[in-house]
Design brief:
Number of strands: 2
Distance between the termini: 18 Å
Structural class: mainly alpha
Largest sheet: 2 strands, antiparallel
CATH architecture of one domain: Orthogonal Bundle
Strand content: under 5%
Radius of gyration: 28 Å
Number of helices: 29
CATH class of one domain: Mainly Alpha
Length: about 700
C-alpha cells in the first residue's frame, strides 16, 4: 500500500511520501549517520572483531561429528556406485564408435527427423575427429549414472511436495538452497564422506541436477486438469493408482522438460567434477590443458562438452514436444550402415579412441591466439585497464581511493569529495522540487557509494538498506528475512569477502541488465534481430560453466576483469530472453487499443508493452542474478578474491567448516537478491491484475 503521509513543500505544494520514498529516506539517514560519525565510532563502519563468531570452527565441529558417523556408510555407497560407473564406461568404450554414431543418429531420426539425425551424426563425428572419443565416453558414463539418481531424487521431492502441501514451503526452501549453494561448497563434505574419485563428482552432479526435476514434477502435477483428477477418483482407483497411472502420465510433457534440464545440469558439472574426481574424462582434459595454458587443446576439449550438451539438449527437449512418427525403415537402414562400417572399422584397425585429426587445428589455434595477443596485446590491455581503472576499481574501492595520478592524472582530495556531494545535493534539490523524493534520496546514496565503493560500505547501510528494500518489495516479513540472513554473514567473519562478491556480481548484473535489456528490446522490435540472437542465446545456454573461462583466458589472462567478462557472458542470456518474451507477449486487445488511440511504435513499446512486461523482465533479472552468483564461484579460479576464493581454499585444505560457511554466505546473498526481485515482480503482477 502506498504511504499516505504528506509533507508541506513551498507555497501549498504537497509531496506524497510513497512506501519507496520512506524507505529511501530511511536508508539516506543511515548513510548520513555512518558517513558523519564513522570516524568517531569505528564500529559503525567495520564490525568489531571481538563480536565475530567462529562460525567456521563451529561448523567444522558440528559437521565433523556427522561425517565421522556416516563416513563408513558413504564409503560403502562409493564402493557400490563405482561398479555401475565402471560398467557403463566399459560398455560405452567397448562399443565401436561407428555403431555408437549410428545408434545416436537413428535415435535422432526417430525423435526429430532429419535435423536431429544430422545433429547426432555430425556432432559425434566431430568428437571422433578430435581424438577425445574415449574421454567423451567416460564423461557420458558419469552423466548416465548421475542423471538417474537425480531424476529419482528430484521426482521423489516433487511428489512429496505435491502430496503434502504443508511441506511445499520447506521443499521450495530446500530446492532454493540446493540451487544457490555453490557446488564447490558441498564438494568439501562430499570429499570427506565419499573420498577422492569420480564417485564424488557423480554425487555432486546428482545433487546439482535434482532441483530442476523436482520443480518440474511439482509444476506438472499442479497443472493436471481437474477433470482428469475427478475421472481418476470416479474410476475407484487408490491414491497411489491415481498418482502413478493418471496424474504423472498427464504431466509427462512438463516432466520431460525437467528431464531435459536435469541432463543439462548434470553435464554442466562434468568439468567441476574433474577438479576432485581425477577421472580420465573430458572435464579432466579441459582442466589439465587450461592449467598448462594450452588454449588450443583446451578449446577443442571444451568444444566436445559443448557438442554433447547441444545433442543432449535438443534430443531431450524434442522428447517433451508432440512429434510426428518417423519411418522406422530409415532408422533400421542407419543401424545397418553403422553395423557395416563397424565391421570394416574393426577389420581396418581404426582406433576406438578416435581419429585425432584435429590435433593440428588445436596447435594452430594455440599459435593463432599467441599471434593475436602479440599483435593486439596493447589494445586488449587498454580495454582491460580502462575498464578496471575507470569502472570496476572505483566501484570496488570508491573514487576516494581509485583516483590516482598514475591512472586519472590527479589525486582525489577533500575538494573533490565536496564537489561530488555538492553536485549530488543540487540534483536532489531539483528532483525534490519536481516531487521525485525517492530519486532525490537515491542520488545522494549513489554519491556515497561512488565515494567509498561497495567493498567499503558500512555494514548498517547494507543490512538496513536490504531490509528497507525488502519492506518495499514484500513487507515486514521479507525485511526481517533479509536483515537476519545478512547478519549471519556479518558475524561469521566473512563480511569483507561477501562485499567483494556483492560488488562483482552486482557489476555483472548491472551490465547484463543494460546490455541484455537493449538486446531484448532490439529482438522484440525486429524478427531479423531475434533470428540472429536466438542461436547465440541457445549456444551460450548449452555451454557448461567452466568452458566460458577458456576464451576469456585466451585474450585477457587471469584477473578480475576476465572473471567479470565470464560472468556477463553466462548471465546475460536470461535477460535477453525474458525481456523479449515480455515485450512480445502483450495481449493483442491492449495493443489494438493503444494503436486506436494514436500511439506510435515507440510509444506503444515504452508506454504499453514495457509496463505490461515488467513482471516478466523482473523474472529475467532474477534469473540473471542467480546465474551471476553461480558463475561467480567458477570465476574464482581465474583471479577473484571474494567468497569463491574462500570456497576453493577450503576445498584445497579439506576445511569443511570454511567451505560450508563461505558457501552458505554466497547462497544467502543470492537468496536475498532473489527474494527481493521476486517481491517486486509479484507486486507488478498484482498491479496488472495478472
Amino acid at each position: 500500500m502506498s504511504a499516505t503521509e504528506a509533507v508541506s513543500h513551498g507555497a501549498g505544494r504537497q509531496l506524497m511520501l510513497t512506501r519507496g520514498s520512506q524507505a529511501a529516506l530511511f536508508v539516506l539517514a543511515v548513510v548520513l549517520l555512518c558517513r558523519l560519525l564513522g570516524a568517531q565510532f569505528e564500529w559503525l563502519v567495520k564490525w568489531p572483531t571481538a563480536l565475530t563468531v567462529p562460525m567456521a570452527d563451529w561448523m567444522t565441529w558440528l559437521v565433523g561429528g556427522f561425517l565421522d558417523v556416516f563416513k563408513p556408510i558413504a564409503r560403502t555407497f562409493t564402493f557400490l556406485v563405482s561398479y555401475p560407473m565402471e560398467w557403463v564406461g566399459w560398455l560405452l568404450n567397448a562399443v565401436p564408435w561407428p555403431m555408437t554414431v549410428a545408434l545416436v543418429t537413428a535415435l535422432g531420426w526417430m525423435i526429430g527427423g532429419i535435423r536431429l539425425a544430422a545433429l547426432g551424426f555430425f556432432g559425434l563425428m566431430f568428437v571422433v575427429f578430435t581424438g577425445y572419443w574415449s574421454q567423451g565416453m567416460n564423461t557420458l558414463a558419469l552423466v548416465a549414472v548421475s542423471v538417474p539418481l537425480a531424476l529419482v531424487m528430484g521426482a521423489a521431492i516433487g511428489i512429496l511436495a505435491f502430496e503434502y502441501p504443508r511441506m511445499k514451503g520447506a521443499v521450495n526452501a530446500l530446492l532454493d538452497v540446493m540451487q544457490t549453494v555453490p557446488t564447490f561448497a558441498y564438494l568439501v563434505p562430499l570429499l570427506v564422506l565419499f573420498g577422492f574419485g569420480p564417485v564424488v563428482g557423480l554425487i555432486a552432479s546428482a545433487i546439482y541436477a535434482a532441483p530442476p526435476m523436482a520443480r518440474n514434477v511439482l509444476l506438472g502435477l499442479e497443472r493436471v486438469d481437474t477433470e482428469i483428477r475427478e475421472a481418476a477418483v470416479m474410476s475407484g482407483g487408490t491414491r497411489r493408482q491415481q498418482l502413478f497411472l493418471v496424474e504423472l502420465p498427464a504431466a509427462t510433457q512438463q516432466i520431460m522438460i525437467g528431464v531435459n534440464q536435469c541432463l543439462m545440469a548434470a553435464l554442466s558439472m562434468v568439468i567441476i567434477a574433474a577438479v576432485i574426481g581425477g577421472f580420465d574424462d573430458i572435464g579432466w582434459e579441459v582442466l589439465q590443458t587450461m592449467r598448462k595454458a594450452l588454449f588450443g587443446p583446451a578449446f577443442l576439449a571444451g568444444s566436445v562438452v559443448v557438442v554433447f550438451a547441444i545433442i543432449i539438449d535438443r534430443m531431450s527437449a524434442a522428447l517433451a514436444e508432440p512429434r510426428q512418427p518417423q519411418n522406422r525403415t530409415v532408422a533400421y537402414g542407419i543401424l545397418a550402415v553403422g553395423a557395416a562400417v563397424t565391421i570394416w572399422a574393426v577389420l581396418a584397425g581404426w582406433p576406438p579412441s578416435g581419429v585425432a585429426a584435429m590435433d593440428g587445428l588445436a596447435k594452430r589455434v594455440d599459435e593463432g591466439v599467441g599471434v593475436f595477443t602479440a599483435t593486439y596485446g596493447t589494445t586488449l590491455d587498454n580495454i582491460k585497464n580502462t575498464s578496471m581503472f575507470y569502472v570496476l576499481l572505483p566501484l570496488r574501492i570508491g573514487l576516494a581511493e581509485a583516483v590516482l595520478p598514475f591512472t586519472w592524472g590527479f589525486a582525489w582530495t577533500v575538494k573533490h569529495t565536496a564537489m561530488l556531494y555538492g553536485s549530488a545535493l543540487l540534483i536532489s534539490l531539483i528532483l525534490i522540487f519536481k516531487g521525485r523524493v525517492t530519486a532525490a534520496a537515491m542520488v545522494l546514496i549513489i554519491a556515497y557509494i561512488a565515494e567509498i565503493g561497495v567493498a567499503h560500505l558500512a555494514w548498517p547501510v547494507v543490512i538496513l538498506g536490504a531490509g528497507a528494500i525488502g519492506w518495499v518489495s514484500g513487507g515486514w516479513k521479507l525485511a526481517r528475512l533479509a536483515v537476519i540472513l545478512l547478519c549471519l554473514i556479518l558475524i561469521s567473519g566473512l563480511w569483507e569477502r561477501a562485499l567483494l562478491s556483492l560488488y562483482l556480481a552486482g557489476a555483472a548484473v548491472f551490465a547484463c541488465a543494460v546490455i541484455g535489456g537493449l538486446l531484448g528490446l532490439w529482438s522484440a522490435m525486429s524478427t531479423t534481430a531475434w533470428m540472429i540472437l536466438r542461436p547465440i542465446c541457445d549456444f551460450l545456454q548449452t555451454i557448461p560453466l567452466f568452458v566460458f573461462l577458456i576464451p576469456v583466458l585466451m585474450f585477457f589472462q587471469i584477473g578480475e576483469f576476465s572473471a567479470f567478462i565470464a560472468i556477463c557472458m553466462y548471465a546475460v542470456v536470461p535477460m535477453i530472453r525474458y525481456t523479449r518474451h515480455g515485450l512480445v507477449s502483450t495481449p493483442d486487445d491492449i495493443i489494438e487499443a493503444a494503436t486506436a488511440s494514436g500511439a506510435g511504435k515507440w510509444q506503444t513499446m515504452f508506454e504499453v508493452r514495457a509496463p505490461f512486461a515488467a513482471p516478466t523482465i523482473l523474472l529475467g533479472l532474477n534469473q540473471t542474478i542467480l546465474y551471476a552468483f553461480a558463475m561467480l564461484v567458477i570465476a574464482a579460479l581465474i583471479g577473484t578474491t571474494e567468497l569463491g576464493q574462500s570456497i576453493f581454499l577450503a576445498l584445497g585444505q579439506y576445511d569443511v567448516g570454511l567451505g560450508i560457511t563461505a558457501g552458505a554466505a554466497m547462497a544467502i546473498l543470492a537468496l536475498v537478491a532473489d527474494r527481493l526481485v521476486q517481491g517486486f515482480a509479484e507486486e507488478r503482477r498484482q498491479a496488472l491484475g495478472l
